[in-house]
Amino acid sequence: MLREVDIRSITLRKLKFMAVLSSITLLSWPHVVGADETTVAVPPKPTVSVATLKACASSPNCVSSIDERGYFRVEPFKLKTADKSAAWEQIHATVSKIEGFKSTDSTNVYQHYESTSNIFHFVDDVELFLDAEKGLVKLRSASRTGYYDLGANRRRMSGIAEILRAENLIE
Question: Is-above-0.85 flag for pTM?
Answer without folding.
Answer: no
